[in-house]
């Protein structure tokens, strides 16, 4: 019973921190606010997260896991690589169009933690390395030219769409982003000797 209650308290803390960090920013949200809204004691928080930094990293890891699960479902679909990339792009566009969208959790976090040696900064870079690797590996199956430049291009389009999506009309941003991804795929399909299957 005690173990279940502890897990519930941790979940509540993480859910509360995730909501507040994403909507209001990390530095602007204090521990007292998180404790109050999660309805736990400070002692409970520190039992699960020794400091705020640990809670921030747990928040980013939770978002990372969610992203990996969403991408994993598409990867497991057995579709051709180009279709998987379009589905990933559509998922990103869906997020931008969603209510309460406030940009990329990772780009937002790294803006608050610019020191490359800081654990939060490193957590952001680890997520981005995974995403770039995933996209680049898929692009290797579309066309015959090296995929690295196209992978970086996709990620830059995604970053721009995530930043612009909370500043401009999300519909226009998503249309521009999805057309850009199509352009990458069409270029790769026609620049090599053909299209490989995934």
Can you give keywords for this protein?
Homeodomain-like_sf; Tet_transcr_reg_TetR-rel_C_sf; 74% helix; HTH_TetR; 9 helices; DNA-binding; Tetracycline Repressor, domain 2; 198 residues; Arc Repressor Mutant, subunit A; disordered C terminus
Report helical residue fraction.
Answer: over 70%
Mean pLDDT: 93
General form:
elongated
Total DSSP E strands: 0
Q: Could you describe the largest sheet, including whether it forms a barrel?
A: none
Q: Give unreliable regions as ranges.
A: 193-198
Full CATH superfamily name of the largest domain: Tetracycline Repressor, domain 2
What CATH architecture of the largest domain do you see?
Answer: Orthogonal Bundle
Strand content: under 5%
What is the tally of helical segments? Answer: 9
Distance between the termini: 47 Å
Rg for CA atoms: 19 Å
SSE string, helix = H, strand = E? HHHHHHHHH
CATH class of the largest domain: Mainly Alpha
Enter the CATH topology name of the largest domain: Tetracycline Repressor, domain 2
Structural class of the secondary elements? mainly alpha
Q: Total domains, how many?
A: 2
Descriptive overview:
By secondary structure, this protein is mainly alpha-helical. It folds into 2 domains: 1-50, Homeodomain-like (Arc Repressor Mutant, subunit A, Orthogonal Bundle); 52-191, Tetracycline Repressor, domain 2 (Orthogonal Bundle), CATH 1.10.357.10. The chain has 9 helices and no strands. It has helices spanning 2-24, 31-38, 42-48, 52-75, 81-97, 105-112, 119-139, 148-164, 170-191. Helix 4 (52-75) packs across helix 5 (81-97). The longest helix has 24 residues, at 52-75. The radius of gyration is 19 Å and the shape is elongated. 28% of the residues are buried. Mean pLDDT is 93; it is low at 193-198. Keywords: DNA-binding. InterPro entries: Homeodomain-like_sf, HTH-type_TetR-like_transc_reg, HTH_TetR, Tet_transcr_reg_TetR-rel_C_sf.
